[in-house]
Amino acid sequence: MKIDVEKCAQLLGEWDNILILCHAHPDGDTLGSGFALLRAMQGLNKRARILCDDEIPSKYSYMLDGIKNEEFEPDYVVAVDVATVSLLGSLQETYGDRINLCIDHHATNTKYAENLLLCSDAAANCEIIFEIIKALGVKIDKKTADCLYTGLTTDTGCFRYSSTTSNTYRCAAELIDLGADNGYINRLMFETKTKKFAALERLATQGMQFFLDERVCVITITNEMYEQTGTDEQDTEALPPLTRQIEGVEIGLTLREKKDKTCKCSIRTFESVNAADLAGAFGGGGHKQAAACRFDCDIESAKKLLVEKSKELLK
Amino acid sequence: MKIDVEKCAQLLGEWDNILILCHAHPDGDTLGSGFALLRAMQGLNKRARILCDDEIPSKYSYMLDGIKNEEFEPDYVVAVDVATVSLLGSLQETYGDRINLCIDHHATNTKYAENLLLCSDAAANCEIIFEIIKALGVKIDKKTADCLYTGLTTDTGCFRYSSTTSNTYRCAAELIDLGADNGYINRLMFETKTKKFAALERLATQGMQFFLDERVCVITITNEMYEQTGTDEQDTEALPPLTRQIEGVEIGLTLREKKDKTCKCSIRTFESVNAADLAGAFGGGGHKQAAACRFDCDIESAKKLLVEKSKELLK
Lengths: 315, 315
Description:
By secondary structure, chain A is an alpha/beta fold. Chain A has twelve helices and eleven strands. The first copy, chain A, has helices at 5-14, 28-43, 91-95, 125-136, 142-155, 166-177, 182-190, 195-206, 223-229, 240-243, 275-280, 299-313; strands at residues 18-21, 48-51, 76-80, 101-104, 115-118, 209-211, 216-221, 251-257, 263-269, 285-286, 290-295.
């Protein structure tokens, strides 16, 4: 059932023993959403816990400050920023068919939850969580403001992407007034490169390939490049935006080789092509200008498939 | 005389035949300030004109849409985002001693103008100009909103730097509601790299040097690198922020060789060092975390001087 912010706040106000699920390969928006909601629930003296299939990258560790995250048998399960159950990773098995509430901003949401609060015009899921917490009447402390701000800034490329609305900016202003440390968070998210990442980035940009009259740019990250630079998949998050920064490029593809030689692709586009359509052709999904999909084949074969489909979509 | 926004709006309301001066080597904030003010003045049916010592980079050409910029003998001269008269370049000779009003946000402003509106807590000068235009009661159209938004986003590295306040975000939200095309402007300012710039960037990052326990990072741009990539100085604007992105770096220096083999340096720092202090030691200036200076010597000698002074400031 589709619900609105009021109804969502009412349900959360009534519930207790709540498990919050983030999507696998977590980013700042799913974690910011999850931890802000956890803090709000615990602020209302409810028992709440957060789970994610993958380890939380260390750069987000400030979100965990001062929270309890103890195991218990949940009465209610809430998924945040999770467009489809498969994105829960291995948690799908246990919880996939018992999600009581999903709070999401992906237009591609597969409506798997009993209750769905979907605001696809929100640039970040944290914009919705912010509204819910306000509707719940919980005091928003500095740490919660930090979590919410993190979601806003990471899902908008630091307020850069065209998905960013005046509401996104207004939320950011409010959160800064509530204590969010925007300078610190942005420095951590966008301004800090390890030397090994800088080395990977150089290899990646050196190997950039262009297709279809240079309207498609491809970055390829192989296991060999990880070895050579001492990096791993976690270090690749900042690479996809580089592909569409080259003048004239309409589709940017970042192909990452997995240990088993299959691969994943991050897709970035501008207005001319819907990234979710391209990802969707291979069973993936996402937003209009940022999406992703997986392949069971090697990088070269995946590249061929992606360029072929791109040709179709660029017409 | 130091004045406030009210008084500034009152003066501008009374004046006519106004010449607006931007600083040389113009950036988005001085141009956004200048063109927004020009549009506001012309919106009040005043004669106004804008002048800058250097050519306006083509990426800002949308600011010029639909304005008149005809020559006339000015009765009043207004400098925007100009910390000191030397930054006017060759315009200093004609106008340096007759600036009636300066609207600026640099704490280092040398108080050269008859009337000075200085708000050093504004992340961008356009925040101040926005307030003035509102105080003047002129309707802010889409094009003016675009100019003002450009200043906000360029002077804050797209709302990234710690100088960005909740007011900066609030201004951005208002300007988007007034029609500013944030997606388009940010794409143009931050997401569009020419292939030749991408090549220059690769050369620059390949040649990064580290000093003083890797707390200082230096990028060097030589005339040879310009030749090799088909770029020129105008293409280097996006390089300085790269220096301080490497983990552990506190001072980032970007040295650019000039045709006559002397050089300029852009300085980026974090909280631990005041960039304006480092630049000031060599006759330059700027903000706490972004400043610049010139040298009459070659790059290697300048580098030595800068690293020595950095050692002092890092203590």
